[in-house]
Amino acid sequence: MRPAWSIIFFTSSSGLGLGLAAWVVLGFLELGNPVHLLGIAGFTLVLTGAGLLSSTLHLGHPERAWRALSQWRSSWLSREGVLAVLAMAGLALWFGYIYVYGAWPPMWASLILVALIAATVYATSMIYASLKTVARWHHPLTPLCYLMFAAAGGLLAVVWLMAVIGQRADAAIVQATLVLMASAWGVKIAWWRVAGTTGAPSTIETATGLGGFGEVRSLMPPHTSENYLQHEMGFKIARKHATKLRAFALGLGAIVPLVLLALAPLSPVLVGVALLSHVAGVFVERWLFFAEAKHVVTLYY
Amino acid sequence: MDEGDKEQERRIGTMTSLPEASAIKLGLVIDLDICVGCQACVVNCKEWNTSGYGAPLSDENAYGADPSGAWLNRVHAFEAGHGENAKTVHFPKSCLHCEDAPCVTVCPTGASFKRAEDGIVLVNEDWCIGCGLCAWSCPYGAREMDPAEGVMKKCTLCVDRIYNDNLPEEDQVPACVRTCPTNARHFGDLGDPESEVSLLVAARNGFDLMPEQGTKPVNKYLPPRPRRKHEDTPTSLLAMAEAETPKGFWKWVDTTLENLG
């Protein structure tokens, strides 16, 4: 599949923003100082919102994007839109409550908000995982990857913000971050191994129904230049360099941040570098998620 | 309120969920034994649909270095088997109007829908946001984004011909069917087991494309008829001459020469 920058930015940025939001709502950061409160609220909402806005950039008609909120009964894309709007609104109210009343919102409200945030990330992943036509995506580990990256990236952002606002990070939180990040990449490595091995076993023979005559191959494409389908679904560069790119993703997303976080968990600069490196690694991972995926329609070409 | 909105108005409450399976299932039956790959259906489809339902089908820089455009029907050619028994098959492909159409359920706006009355899958172009997810969900490559309009294009089964009383009766079929010079394309109700198309499918062992994808396509394909195997029939004149037993004068020449040793 063609990796559209707007979609890669959307899934990685809003994933990180929502992951961070979940930990903030669970009370991991001290929000007593109004400057810290506004800064953290802004950072979280901008990360999430920028991702969501970017997702409308690849649309043929962005001005009609509001219509995408209507079909939540059948469409994961619509569900994702509805949940994201609810989560963003809930988050704004949650921060607003603290700003106005100077106290934590009631526990039940926070828990509902965290559930909403998790559901939003899950819905994002299901847009892809629900497609039978891309065997690699149509796997139960796909949503787990998205959820784990959001949680791990979010907690790393929490540790960084702790260093920035001068809130001392417990050893337990740092250790939990290390474990969560390593597990997220562990799930990803598992996904790289198993995804695409399950699902509908379509071949050019089943696609054409001509298998009874022997091996089938394309003799002539139906047109002389690339069409929409080939442009959108026939991306090959990533599959050629998959091993190298996966190593880049792991190096940037796992090894560099794990080492930096283990060595200097209290340094705003080094944890900041760790966070940026993790974001870059997830970016490569997300690029590969699209670019490596093979759509079943390519069997016809 | 335009046609598209009226169509949607009747469906309010069902959203892009699929309707109950319709009794009438309009679709095409494509005979791979007959198609010669002349592309007439492709051209007539584009001609009719560029001025019919929805925005015109774009066709930019058609003779330039980098042409672009949207087509609703395309004809591939495949080769099946190897060597002298290999078969060349021309393979027209357009929307199969699936019963379990994933392109309908993934649509976030309700623009993509399946008609309850005849099973035709359509796009309301005024509602389409051009996200492309329906094209991703289609295993057959039946949908193409219009590069000029930014909305999804697909076969309408010529919904603006088949119910159009202003056209003579023989023209009230999809443009591709009407134009096919070899009669390789048939249009009808595949929900009625007694219809001509259903009988044709039964008689010729019509099949589904990628049944494992679970889309339950309405359109059926008729397989190429098996050809006589190459080894059954001599192919060269020499082999044919050698296979023949001489008679009369030539038999006498043959046996005399044999006897000479």
Write the layout of secondary structure elements.
The complex is a heterodimer of chains A (301) and B (261).
Chain A: H1 5-25, H2 34-55, H3 76-101, H4 107-129, H5 141-165, H6 171-194, H7 204-208, E1 216-220, H8 228-233, H9 237-240, H10 242-263, H11 268-291
Helix pairs in contact in A: 1-2, 1-4, 1-5, 1-11, 2-3, 3-4, 4-5, 5-6, 5-11, 6-10, 10-11
Chain B: H1 3-9, E1 26-31, H2 40-49, E2 59-60, E3 68-69, E4 73-80, E5 87-94, H3 102-105, E6 112-114, E7 121-123, H4 133-137, E8 144-145, E9 152-153, H5 159-162, H6 175-179, E10 185-189, H7 196-203, E11 220-222, H8 237-243, H9 248-259
What features would you describe in this structure?
The complex is a heterodimer of chains A (301) and B (261). Chain A is mainly alpha-helical and 301 residues long. Chain A has one domain (5-300): Formate dehydrogenase/DMSO reductase fold (Up-down Bundle), CATH 1.20.1630.10. In chain A, 67% of the residues lie in helices and 2% in strands. Chain A is globular, with a radius of gyration of 21 Å. Chain B has a single domain (3-229), classed as Alpha-Beta Plaits (2-Layer Sandwich), CATH 3.30.70.20. In chain B, strand 6 and strand 7 (121-123) form a beta hairpin. The radius of gyration of chain B is 25 Å and the shape is elongated. Chain B starts with a helix and ends with a helix. The chains are: A mainly alpha (301), B alpha+beta (261). Strand 1 of chain A pairs antiparallel with strand 4 of chain B.
Summed up, what is this model?
The complex is a heterodimer of chains A (301) and B (261). Chain A is 67% helix and 2% strand.
Key attributes of the depicted protein:
heterodimer; A: 301 residues; mainly alpha; Formate dehydrogenase/DMSO reductase fold; 11 helices; B: 261 residues; alpha+beta; Alpha-Beta Plaits; 3-stranded mixed sheet; two-stranded antiparallel sheet; 9 helices; 11 strands; 17% strand
